[in-house]
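> @MW can you paste both from yesterday?
MW: sure, first one:
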Amino acid sequence: MKLQNIYPLTILIAISFLLLNCRDGSNPFEVDYSTVPDPFSVEGITPDTSETGLITYRLQAGSGPFEVTIRDRVLMYYTGRKTNGEIFDSSYGNGSTTPSNLAVDGVVEGFREGILGMKEGEKKVLIIPPSLAYGNNEGHSLQNDTLIFDLELETILD
């Protein structure tokens, strides 16, 4: 069989697999957030507001000799919610119990600002204004939304 004939066959098999798995009416691209923990409580904690407008609640101090820098990759548990409580992303999605591997320089500006300087074991809540998130990115589903993130830093990898 010629190599060029394999590509259409591979695509056909992938589409068939998706269609067979959707017979129950479920959407294979929809993430299940049913196992996401409740939002962290910030009751009694005084927030810090940066010059950029990022609001940070430090719930638990971290430990160890290292702090997150812009060049690092980290293993982190997180959940992102809109101000109405709707979850839009979480490391716990689809029942996951392992932290996500994130590149610090690969996240939105407010998230990056909030995790820089964190130590392993630290927990925070970030309230990220639109200007530090997706702002007025035309057509983005989180355009002009304030984002709330619960964060728990597991490991600094680099």
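MW: second:
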Amino acid sequence: MSKKEIRLLEPADLEEAMALVWEVFAEFQAPEFTQEGIEEFWRFIDGEYMNMMLGEGIMTFWGAFEDDLMVGVCAVRDNNHIALLFVDGEYHRRGIGSTLLKKAVADCKYLDPDLNRVTVNSSPFAVPFYEAMGFKALSGMLEEDGMKFMPMVVEGI
């Protein structure tokens, strides 16, 4: 039986986390993006930028581990917006994404008991996942800087 853990990530974990995010993005989301969108996403997950966001308390990161191997990453910005949620393709459909999301939302709710809504800009690939998690579309699919996304919200958390 494998050892499973979800924990907050430290600055030392971010390089590995962003490598996982990029790998999963390249496989599952990049095909939906323009070259401009791919480059914009690459800039967003820059390690130095992510370290600054973590250090300033703007973003919080969680990692999912199986036998000490990082297999999933979730990041929340401003304690109410899912900025990143990526799970290694080999580990899809094992409950890792939903467990990561639930842990992140629970931690955010703990920090702000009045929190009652969380948003996400879902990629086309992830819309069915977020819908299954109770998120509702706020609009149709949008495109900005070459990145396609659907603004979504879950309320009453």
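> thanks! Helices lie at 14-28, 35-44, 47-55, 96-111, 127-132.
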